[in-house]
Amino acid sequence: MTTFLGMPTAPRGVGHLRGDDPFPVAARRSLADAQLRRNLAKATATIRAKRAKVTAELPDWEELRAAGRAIKTRTMAHLDRYLEQLEAEFTSRGGIVHWAADAHEANLIAVDLVRATGATEVVKVKSIVTDEIGLNEALADAGISAIETDLAELIVQLGHDRPSHFLVPAIHRNRAEIRDIFLRQMDGVDPGLTDRPADLAGAARRYLRQKFLTARVGVSGANFAVAETGTLCVVESEGNGRMCLTLPDTLITIMGIEKVIPTWTDLGVFLQLLPRSATGERMNPYTSMWTGVTPGDGPRQVHLILLDNGRTAALADSVGRQALHCIRCSACLNVCPVYERVGGHAYGSVYPGPIGAVLSPMLTGIEDNASLPYASSLCGACYEACPVQIDIPELLVHLRARHVDEARRRWPPGLEAITMSTAAWAMADPARFRSAQSLGRLGRVGRRRGVIGRLPPPLAAWTRARDAPVPPAETFRHWWSRTHGDAHDRP
Ligand code: SF4
Prior knowledge:
By secondary structure, this protein is α/β, with parallel strands linked by helices. It has helices spanning 23-31, 34-56, 61-77, 79-92, 103-117, 128-133, 135-141, 151-158, 175-185, 197-214, 240-246, 264-278, 311-315, 331-335, 337-342, 353-364, 381-385, 392-409, 415-427, 430-440, 460-465, 476-484; strands at 96-100, 121-124, 145-148, 217-220, 224-226, 231-236, 250-256, 260-261, 286-290, 301-307, 451-452, 468-469.
């Protein structure tokens, strides 16, 4: 067995964890789309209300959250042991385990496995980790079509779009837009298709049925993996996942290493937390679990690809590692005032919203996603909603500090670092500070009152979005000196 635990790895091919534009540029673009904001506001408000209702029903909801956090903390502390146990149990029941250090390696393994079957098409269960590594593109490059079978993922795929929410990947689309996508892209669709939800679902069902019945390879992620028996678990709402997990001869599951949990008792906690936080349901409509190969039932070959892709580097950060506790329920997205206005695409990563703002930079390295930890008002709503009590505001501040520390060490220094060093130098000495204050008062020239609307570069970026106050006519030191007679502190 080759593992990478205990040895933080720098991912070679990180996949879809960063966008072309930094968050402020992408967010400005999204904010200009009024239809997108309407779609998001409606969808997030609906899910928020459902979640609030079903979590309020449980008298021990807070205890469950604390239990979820405790299980995750303990698991991360012994991740190497639980992963080795998972591998041993999964293998002993006829499954095959593969280890992938990054997206590139995971894709190579998956493509080889599909090629070995001779299949040119695979059916997929909704899986964020396969989006993370760009599996569909890697399969396409090898001449293999990947068919998304989750309704929302299918909409995204047919629309040549990107997911913008964990749970509702097409949350940015309304019914009319979905009907238009189906009419344009879906083979054999009824040209009179309406935008009624039942009609749209029926069209997708007819299209996918044919794919399920002919597919020889299924691809999935996993919500959880129980180490004590080597059991994998997928939760979903539509039943398409169960078709992918049971009908094909070969099943390939790709899973981030943080998804392992020690025992079935632990699974019981998460199966209560996840559906209530995610869809606002008391339990999932479909919970599929499989343990290796079962003769006469389900796939003949069962593979598990365990993916690092920056996770051991995140684990090495004693504060940041709690981002790995995430169970992808999306509750933090639905309560975030920033996400509600800009949507998922602005984050540039397959992990959007508050958790994406911390997880993506932790997986890629802070420099590759430096703007994301600032994509928050630090209001704390995400922390209150999170079913495993991830302190996202604490992580955001921690990553901002890491970003500043790394910027300080860089050579040549950036403009911000030069400005801050100069300010620190001026403030470290009373005489220099007095001189700086006198210089600052030059800002009063030509202004009797009010604010400075525009500063020269490099300070122009500050005044582009806000006014700067005019320096006071008299500094505090001057006032103190004048009223208390300290002759050493005259300006
Ligand atoms: S950080 Fe918490 S609330 Fe957000 S998706 Fe993950 S588990 Fe859910």
